[in-house]
Design a protein that fits this description.
The complex is a heterodimer of chains A (110) and B (118). Chain A is mainly beta. Chain A has no helices and 9 strands. By secondary structure, chain B is mainly beta. Classes of the chains: A mainly beta (110), B mainly beta (118). The interface between A and B is medium-sized, with 29 and 24 residues.
């Protein structure tokens, strides 16, 4: 099972919006509405930000949103804030009842 | 509240095995699969597999088949991950994480650092 494809880095200025893509195949991202996104600050534990493509857990800011089209899922962060600077990982359910992560994207807030 | 508390850091020699524990509290242990994820220094998250505490069923990532063993002790709500024949590139932080029905991971352990060095 190959890792999902994410851009290595994205950047944006405070107040702007950015989008991180996550590309898989019909055996994972495209085949199921089970894509989730995680935020990880340096030295910290990953935190669930989005589940089932577009759902936010309680307590997660509504500046974070998710979507999917075909084999590509996306995480959008609007109104960028300095605290959003972190690594972001997507994850998907797969056809073998496994899970797979993306390679991760480093978000820099300029 | 849900908590996953993992065992402490380990230092192992190449070729040895390591067993990491993950004690769950705040929910019914047998209601959720437990997944294991590792992260090598400066690298991304890597899914290793899951175990059902209810049935004992396991599903390991192909890379780890024959090499990792996941078990649980439901009497003490604890999951274990044992990795054998350690190599230097197995040095990583190993996380346990609760698998939700929607295939996401809603709660994570604090991580257990495994160092492999001769």
């Amino acid at each position: 099972q190959s890792a999902l494809t994410q851009p290595a880095s994205v950047s944006g200025s405070p107040g702007q919006s950015i989008t991180i893509s996550c590309t898989g195949t019909s055996n994972d991202v495209g085949g199921y509405n089970y894509v989730s996104w995680y935020q990880q600050h340096p030295g910290k534990v990953p935190k669930l930000m989005i589940y089932a493509v577009s759902n936010r857990p309680s307590g997660v800011s509504n500046r974070f949103s998710g979507s999917k089209s075909g084999n590509t899922a996306s995480l959008t962060i609007s109104g960028l804030q300095a605290e959003d600077e972190a690594d972001y990982y997507c994850s998907s359910y797969t056809s073998t009842t496994s899970r797979v992560f993306g390679g991760g994207t480093k978000l820099t807030v300029l | 509240q849900v908590q996953l508390v993992q065992s402490g850091a380990e230092v192992k020699k190449p070729g040895a095995s390591v067993k990491v524990s993950c004690k769950a509290s705040g929910y019914t242990f047998t209601d959720y699969n437990m997944h294991w994820v590792r992260q090598a220094p400066g690298q991304g998250l890597e899914w290793m597999g899951w175990i059902s505490p209810n049935s004992g069923e396991t599903n390991y990532a192909q890379k780890f088949q024959g090499w990792v063993t996941m078990t649980t002790d439901t009497s003490i709500s604890t999951a274990y991950m044992e990795l054998s024949r350690l190599k230097s590139d197995d040095a990583a932080v190993y996380y346990c994480t609760r698998g939700e029905v929607g295939a996401h991971f809603d709660h994570w352990g604090q991580g257990a650092l495994v160092t492999v060095s001769s």
